């Protein structure tokens, strides 16, 4: 059994929790609650849904932490629970249907010009309004991604999991992760560019 | 304008190239193509910038009441768990 994958702070907190310290669980929650909440918000769009997903994730983790064998990182394990909670919530609430993004529809020149206008993030504090606009544009574009692409994009490009970790969290192949991520990025580029071109 | 056939093969691999997931031989081929094809270079750079700006999105703060309810739920669960252990 491989016990070295979870980082040392997580490992210590898990040990403390197993030895009867409820404070250890509080610290685990503090470490990951914001990322789980944001993941839920990105996947389901509503604060109430993100709250439900966060609660379900940590309550399930609390129930199973005694048996967690640390064969994967704690963060990955929590995101697997959260991803499953998102899927259940989506099924229950009958969110938008899945649809495929074809590569052809995202190729340069497919229904638009070949040039893309993607703004840079300026560090200039005076450009706060522009940054706020860009934030809204990106959030709108992300929320219009079909869910299975949004899930991969969120784990890879926002949470920073690598391809293999994302595949394990979602129970899909690495090739499926690569394909979905590529199409998600192409879709986002198209949406963001359309906004800044006034299309 | 439609994409040239020779560019399509590279277009499909651009994200993997961006993520450093390709072997060195394929990377060299792509780099060689990018030097010669301004359309693909623009395609690559705009995709790279898209990934960068999306990564830099700030996280939403958890509303205080939402965080408090999570703490209460966990405390409730832990105290029930402790009570169960005590009963045993």
How would you explain this protein's 3D organization?
The complex is a heterodimer of chains A (199) and B (88). Chain A folds into two domains: 8-93, Orthogonal Bundle (Rna Polymerase Sigma Factor, Chain: A); 103-197, Arc Repressor Mutant, subunit A, CATH 1.10.10. The longest helix of chain A has 24 residues, at 174-197. Chain A has nine helices and no strands. In chain A, α7 (147-158) crosses α9 and α8 crosses α9 (174-197). Helices cover 68% and strands 0% of the residues of chain A. Chain A is mainly α. Chain B has one domain. Chain B has helices at residues 5-11, 14-18, 24-36, 38-55, 64-87. The termini of chain B are far apart. In chain B, 17% of the residues are buried. At the A-B interface, α2, α3, α6, α7 and α9 of A face α2, α4 and α5 of B.
Put the structure in a nutshell.
With 199 residues, chain A is an all-alpha fold. Chain A contains nine helices and no strands. Chain B has one domain.
Identify the notable features of this structure and list them briefly.
heterodimer; A: mainly alpha; Arc Repressor Mutant, subunit A; 2 domains; B: 88 residues; mainly alpha
The count of helical stretches of chain B stands at 5
Count of helices of chain A?
A: 9
Q: Helix- and strand-based class of chain B?
A: mainly alpha
By CATH's scheme, which homologous superfamily of the largest domain in chain A applies? Winged helix-like DNA-binding domain superfamily/Winged helix DNA-binding domain
List the helices and strands and how they pair.
The complex is a heterodimer of chains A (199) and B (88).
Chain A: H1 8-18, H2 22-44, H3 47-64, H4 74-93, H5 103-106, H6 128-143, H7 147-158, H8 163-170, H9 174-197
Helix pairs in contact in A: 1-2, 2-3, 2-4, 3-4, 4-8, 6-9, 7-9, 8-9
Chain B: H1 5-11, H2 14-18, H3 24-36, H4 38-55, H5 64-87
Helix pairs in contact in B: 3-4
């Amino acid at each position: 059994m491989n016990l070295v994958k979870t980082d040392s702070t997580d490992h210590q907190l898990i040990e403390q929790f197993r030895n009867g310290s409820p404070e250890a669980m509080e610290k685990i929650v503090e470490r990951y609650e914001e990322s789980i909440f944001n993941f839920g918000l990105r996947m389901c769009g509503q604060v109430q849904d993100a709250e439900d997903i966060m609660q379900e994730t940590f309550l399930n983790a609390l129930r199973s932490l005694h048996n967690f064998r640390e064969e994967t990182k704690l963060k990955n394990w929590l995101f697997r629970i959260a991803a499953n909670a998102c899927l259940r919530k989506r099924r229950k609430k009958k969110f938008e249907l899945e649809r495929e993004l074809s590569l052809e529809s995202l190729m340069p020149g497919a229904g638009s010009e070949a040039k893309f206008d993607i703004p840079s993030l300026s560090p200039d504090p005076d450009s706060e309004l522009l940054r706020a606009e860009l934030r809204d544009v990106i959030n709108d574009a992300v929320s219009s991604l079909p869910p299975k692409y949004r899930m991969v994009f969120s784990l890879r490009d926002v949470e920073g999991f690598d391809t293999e970790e994302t595949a394990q969290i979602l129970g899909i192949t690495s090739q499926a992760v690569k394909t979905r991520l590529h199409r998600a990025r192409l879709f986002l580029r198209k949406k963001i560019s359309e906004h800044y071109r006034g299309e | 304008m439609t994409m040239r056939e020779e560019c399509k093969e590279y277009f499909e691999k651009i994200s993997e190239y961006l993520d450093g997931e390709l072997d060195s031989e394929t990377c060299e081929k792509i780099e060689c193509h990018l030097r010669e094809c301004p359309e693909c270079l623009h395609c690559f750079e705009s995709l790279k910038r898209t990934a960068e700006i999306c990564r830099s999105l700030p996280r939403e703060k958890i509303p205080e009441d939402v965080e408090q309810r999570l703490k209460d739920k966990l405390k409730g669960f832990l105290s029930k768990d402790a009570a169960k252990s005590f009963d045993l």
